[in-house]
Amino acid sequence: MLINMSVHIVNVLWLLSYSHPCISALVCKGLKGLTCCTGFTGHVWNETVHNCTSCMSGFHGENCASSCPFPYYGIRCGLKCNCSEDECHHQYGCKRRLGDCDPGVVGPYCELTCRYPEFGKDCQMECECEEQNCNPMTGCILDSSSPAAGPLAKTTTAYPLNAANENFISFV
């Protein structure tokens, strides 16, 4: 039984190494244990998963040691800034004006997630629920098992009073 199980484990590892070359092609034994093989740029050893992983956004090269050169930014330095070098960040691109960020993020490069209890466009709205139920983009998410949740449990969002009134036309 033990021999049969060993054969299955070996077969699974062989299949994984065949279908995912990063398991066999990028990992080498080094002086301090497993590491990314020399010459495979764009990868770094990840201690958490004990494997080679692609560089974080904004980095490239051997062991992901270099930031993207201007005017490039992003994953594999595959995006190009359309702004001055002073305003181009190697991870996030060009600085944004206030109001240019998507809901749930703020900052000069839209790099900061709204902090609880804030959410929405420019983080101007406030969740009235516990932190684990506050989505930085959409606001409070009701537990679908709650009887109060109703059919819109996953999409319920609270809007501030001024947003609700901006489309109101007064005839006074």
Describe the structure.
By secondary structure, the chain is of the alpha+beta class. It is 16% helix and 23% strand. It is built from 3 helices and 16 strands. The chain has helices at 2-19, 21-24, 161-165, and strands at 27-30, 33-36, 43-46, 51-54, 59-60, 66-67, 72-73, 79-80, 88-89, 93-94, 105-106, 112-113, 118-119, 125-126, 134-135, 139-140. The strands form 8 sheets. Strands 1-2 form a two-stranded antiparallel ribbon. A two-stranded antiparallel sheet has the order 3-4. It is flat, with a radius of gyration of 24 Å. The relative contact order is 0.07. The model is unreliable at 1-24 and 147-172 (pLDDT under 50).
Blueprint (SSEs and pairs):
Blueprint: H1 2-19, H2 21-24, E1 27-30, E2 33-36, E3 43-46, E4 51-54, E5 59-60, E6 66-67, E7 72-73, E8 79-80, E9 88-89, E10 93-94, E11 105-106, E12 112-113, E13 118-119, E14 125-126, E15 134-135, E16 139-140, H3 161-165
Antiparallel strand pairs: 1-2, 3-4, 5-6, 7-8, 9-10, 11-12, 13-14, 15-16
